[in-house]
Amino acid sequence: MQKETALIFSWLNVLTKKRYDALIEKFSSIDEALQHIDPELLKSLGCKEETVFRALNRMDECDPESYLAELTKRGISLISIEDPQYPARLKQIADPPVFLYYKGSLEILNEPTIACVGKREMSTYGQRVTDMFVPVFIKAGMVTVSGLAAGIDAAVAKESIRANGKTVAVVGHGLADIYPSANKPLAKEIIEQGGLILSEFPLDHPADKFTFPARNRIIAGLSLGTVVLEAGEGSGACITADLALDYGREVFAVPGQIFDEHYKGCHQLIAKGQAKLVQSPEEVLSEIGIVSLSADEPTKHYDPADEQEESILNVLTTMPQSTSDIVEKAQLDTAIINAKLTMLELNGVAKNVGNGMWVRL
Fold it and tell me: Domains in the chain and their CATH numbers?
């Protein structure tokens, strides 16, 4: 496929894999098919009236040279499914995107990849699960894949960078902008740290209710497996898990409390046998055949500095507790508790997981 053909067809945003195959069968090449674009051909491909009208309007306004210049100016590249650098794992699914726009290092998709997905309204527990799983994946040499949405997606990217790893963010809109806007600095940091931002949509395409499910199939298709870190009922993360199953990829779900609506989706996936219940990142790595390096590390040991630290450590557990709860259980003054918790966190044996909640590491 010639570069100009790819630029025009990707700008029209009508070419699914099924339509691509139909055009190849009819014209032998996409370059030849481009010469025959008209209302009748688009309708024969299954395009609706409004899609035909929009595509023809975009074709009239398309200037491939100017479009390429704009992409180059923004540091964005375009590849098609015919290019040798197209991601091999993604090409294996039933409905791969015909075009991919990207910014950053496409080569990291040759590394073992793991999708880490979850709710936009991330809970304290979900944050802790992310903090526990992602660094182990990174240390095992994996590249994380997520969607750059608020909540779990953003946390996955941040934790991957913090662990000196690479991450892929697949977005449901064109790369002219980043949605949500609050994640623009994070997107920039992903690229600076050797990661990748990826989209199948033309530069000016906005996010809408249809683009995110489409984005989810790419997340699932790029990855050896999908880990649902936190998901409510009907969550987009569950859609990604369903797609991963369709593609024959491994699916894992982290359980929560039975009363927690934030984990109803995870529990449904587990109950239906659609996802393997996992309680540690090492279980995921074992299932997909990746060696965990953390298992060789010695167990962390910490000797309390005094009786007050010992009392606090005896109170702390892996479940989050508020400072007031710790004060009540340890029978110490609030000022002492706050000071000692700070020291314990500096020594890596306790952690503030947000909203004044503490856990023992």
Answer: 3-73 (no CATH), 106-296 (3.40.50.450), 307-360 (1.10.10.10)
At residue 154, the 3 state secondary structure works out as helix
Q: Is the peptide bond before 298 cis (omega within 30 degrees of 0)?
A: no
In tens, the pLDDT along 135-187 reads: 999 998 899 999 999 999 999 999 999 999 999 999 999 999 999 999 999 99
Closest C-alpha among 42, 25, 35 to residue 2: 35
Which conformational region is residue 9 in: left (phi greater than 0), alpha (psi within -120 to 50 degrees), or beta?
A: alpha
Backbone angles phi, psi at 265, to 5 degrees: -65, -45
d(Cα 117, Cα 242) in Å, to the nearest integer?
A: 12
By the 8 A CB rule, do 225 and 117 touch? no
Q: How many Å apart are CA 160 and CA 218, to the nearest integer?
A: 19
Task: Please tell me the distance from the alpha carbon of residue 39 to that of residue 325, in angstroms, as a whole number.
Answer: 68
